[in-house]
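Q: What would this chain look like folded?
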Amino acid sequence: MQNLAASSPNTADIQLLALDIDGTIAGASNDITETVKQAILAAQTKGINVVLATGRMYRSALRFHQAIGSNLPLICYQGAWIQDPATGKILSHLAINKEKAIALLDYLEQPEWRSLLSVHCYINDRLYVREILESTKNYAQRSKIQPIPVGNLRSFLDTEPTKILAMCDDPEAIANLLNNLRQIYSPDELYLTRSVPTFFEATNPLVNKGAAIRYIAEEILGLQPANVMAIGDNFNDVEMIDYAGIGVAMGDGPEEVKAIAQWVAPNIDQDGAAAAIEKFLL
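A: My prediction, written as structure tokens:
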């Protein structure tokens, strides 16, 4: 963990607070605790804009956006989909090249992976799966969405998907999958990450939360990184934490993520996001 030295951005300069959802403002309860919500509202009362940046689908993330009363666009799918709930307008949508998507699905269908993985394909903010497994049901319950079983995803795929996700109960298997695919695909071909230890995610190579936050900060609000504070908990938050003038990692996040943050907050079950907001913004 780094210290915010005298050369670090002045906390009084912060005009945008970027927040991840799962593992940052929403834990096991799948809701924002009252302590975190009040801290966010207090920051907004001071005139600080708040934006959510999540790997979730738009329709799954919308209730969190509404719960905090954000007036900014909502960043979903790791930044692949940015939509303004006030107008319904999609400001940015970066999908995966269809040929690369089919090749990736081919890889995930290999015998060594097929029996281990539950594969999700997201198209037009809908979730398509090969079949409904128990893990699919659990995911659907937490996301509050209805997955659509279509059988062979490769045959079904007739357009470019926003994201492909593979789930497995074994974090080591997901880590191996990620490492294997990084040997096959360069960062210029696909953006590959883990949002939680059991989720592998693939998107367009131009996609990451840092790029999405830069768009909101610089293109929409006319701000600079020094005006931004970001809080996240996992590998898909690294670019966002790195971009922000004040980057905060949650205490129960991976060591590699905490290492690039300027401050490490308490764990999610200790309302770490609220502690960070109070420390730097209130």
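Confidence is low (pLDDT under 50) at residues 1-7.
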